[in-house]
Amino acid sequence: MHRFYAPDIESDNLLPEDEARHCVRVLRLSEGELLEVVDGKGNLFVCRLVNADLRHCLVDIEDRQSLPAHWGCDISIAIAPTKNIDRLEWMVEKVVEMGVDRIIPVSCRYSERKVLKTERLHKIAVSAMKQSLKTRLPVVDELTPVENVLRAQYPGQRFIAYCDREFERRSFVKEYTKGGNVLVLIGPEGDFSKDEIRMAVDSGFMPVSLGESRLRTETAGVFACAAIHTINQL
């Protein structure tokens, strides 16, 4: 059964225009056929297509299930956008496939990219959510100064991962507490500045390493998310 995303499905019984176009023009679904719809808030609906319109498909909801996220905790990845936007888009796709609650693009002193359009990241997240059969869509924030992330309250463990060997670092996989809410902060290609590292530690972030290899920014984001899921499944 084909799956679609409609955040307001319970209130208007409609597929948004882009989803309606895919339903009718690409998949050529006909009136009377069944399809699945997720609202991005943890709900899955089995619907019957009533009006196959290219702009707004009307459906009848025949069944509704609430499906909480299987990972059972809040996972947030705060990461500096890469100079090559394709690398960041790849990371967003992969962490959504695994399961993540929030992606926070952060602007740092040594960031290669100072401007970011998040509309495409949102579309990639929607596609990855549907492809991986999830019902919850992660929040994709606008580009945020790293200082704002450091000052914000977070109900869980907070880590900052960096390469600078002048500062003490612990092992992320050893320090993360299984099942706990977690925010991992990952810097740009040029790493965090020394002042940013000090500020993070002073704000309660635990300094960590993601292993002995020097990882690309986007690889570090995927590694951190995969490590959290692996630890939680042990």
Structural summary, described in words:
The chain is α/β, with parallel strands linked by helices. 33% of the residues lie in helices and 26% in strands. The protein has helices at 9-12, 17-26, 85-98, 119-131, 146-151, 172-175, 194-202, 217-233; strands spanning 3-5, 14-15, 34-38, 43-51, 57-66, 75-79, 102-107, 139-140, 144-145, 157-161, 170-171, 182-186, 206-209. The strands form 2 sheets. Strands 6, 7, 8, 9, 10, 11, 12 and 13 form an 8-stranded parallel beta sheet that branches. A 5-stranded mixed beta sheet has the order 1-3-4-5-2. Strand 6, helix 3 and strand 7 (102-107) form a beta-alpha-beta unit. The longest helix is centred in the last third of the chain and has 17 residues, at 217-233. The mean pLDDT is 96.
Keywords:
single chain; 234 residues; alpha/beta; Ribosomal Protein L25, Chain P; Alpha/beta knot; 2 domains; eight-stranded parallel beta sheet; 8 helices; 13 strands; 26% strand; elongated
